[in-house]
Amino acid sequence: MKTMSFDFKSRRSMVSARRGMVGASNPLAAQAGLNILRRGGNAADAAVATSAMMNVMDPASCGVGGDCFALYFDAETKQVTALNGSGRAPGALTLETVKKLGWATMPRNHAHSVTVPGAVRGWHDLLQRHGTMTLADALGEAIYYAGEGYPTAPVVGHRWALAGEFLRNAANADEYLPNGAPPRAGQVARLPGLANTLRAIAEGGPDAFYSGAIAEAIVSSLQEQGGLMTLDDLKNHHSTWDEPIHTDYHGITVYECPPNGQGLTALIALNIAENFDLKSLPWDSPERIHLMVECMRLAWADAHVYIADMSRADVPVDELLSKDYAEKRAALIHPYYSADPPRPAGELPGGSDTIYLSVVDGAGNACSFIKSLYMGYGVGIVARGTGVWLQNRGAGFSLVAGHRNCLARGKRPYHTIIPGMALKQGELWASFGVMGGFMQPQGHFQVISGMVDDELNPQEALNRPRWMIANGDPAGSLLIEEGSPFKTMADLAERGHRIQPEAGLGRGNFGRGQIIRYDAETGVMHGGSEPRADGQIAAF
Predict the structure, then answer these.
(1) Is 115 known to be catalytic?
(2) Mean pLDDT, to the nearest integer, of 8-12?
(3) Domain count, the chain
């Protein structure tokens, strides 16, 4: 098969349906979620099934060795709940431990950067609170495809191939190099170790993962690489149900999970932007992009100072989301020139390997769900014999003593993955997300602005070319996606933005999203799926 060319120009139409809808970045995963809805499951059941399938279909980006977050809208109560399924640093890992190694920042590929995987407990807790099915019901298709095989999707296959050298140097990764090489696009991939792990979870629940043979494999594989995680760290892990944070943007109430996630960043940017008449400016004009970028730079400055595990640090969320604060921040923006950021950025590493999915069922329940290993294939260690890649979320800790996000035993790190939800007058309006490291809050900001300020439908909002402040650095370069006018880029450069055009495969860095809009009066769902990925909207 010839190497495929990548053309990101979308000719997709918005998909509309009434009985159920799933958006995911792999068609087989979206269909797995839809099958759950057809069997009478709800949005939570379908989200877990789709998530498990994405573990199989895109193992670089997510897995049971990683974390998850979810926002759930209950159609009966009209309430949004927030699940934090992220793990914590091992109990034996301290700032002093890593300082003795001479590190100024956390590395991405050391066993000390592995935090306890939270995804499996997150699946279980989501089903326990909001679902109607068991893990065994939800994991069936993922188990089948992992064991029997599936054709590798084009974008995933390309990324798998790029990771070939990394995989050859990773610990216990033979399962992901069939015949010594990454599977090509269209080639059948089989993951028998992962199939056995998923089967064990289906039969024994989360305890089969956090204790017993799988837990022992995780701990021994990490300790062989110098890690300090113990069986007690795994056994003691728990998710948390948090009060979601939100703000109002021109009549739309946008919800995010609270810190340690970075959703706060998107809400701060929206609050600041509400002080400008973005709707009156063309979306691709230098005037509008400049204002939005400056809003985002201010939001990033706050994010790097304040976002941390709220159980271990003071994060003044109410103050940061006040309209008075946003007005004061907006006053710092020059209408023409890009100003120096008011605060320095932190030293978090970038990472963009994540999966996002969205589900709305026929009753109007919605689940916005995201799961990740952080960077591609996580830390580069597979728990021997399990097919489980271990995440490197600990790379998100600061090593600056006294910083809110400083490494500490049993603490959650700054987390990049964020699901989004939006309501209008108390009714579901949108379940949405844009995955991709520090692109995520920037993607949320841009698709919400597109749908609210420009009245775009979900597919149009995802098709639109994007911009990105590199690495979430308030002083970072401004990446501009192919499709934006050259004149706009030249004008932005004159304003003081350091412009970096991106085209071709580099456009994958601008995130991969799914959006389902909901009409509460008619019950009609309108879906859009990311043209920069392999996915689709599945509906009936």
Answers:
(1) no
(2) 65
(3) 1
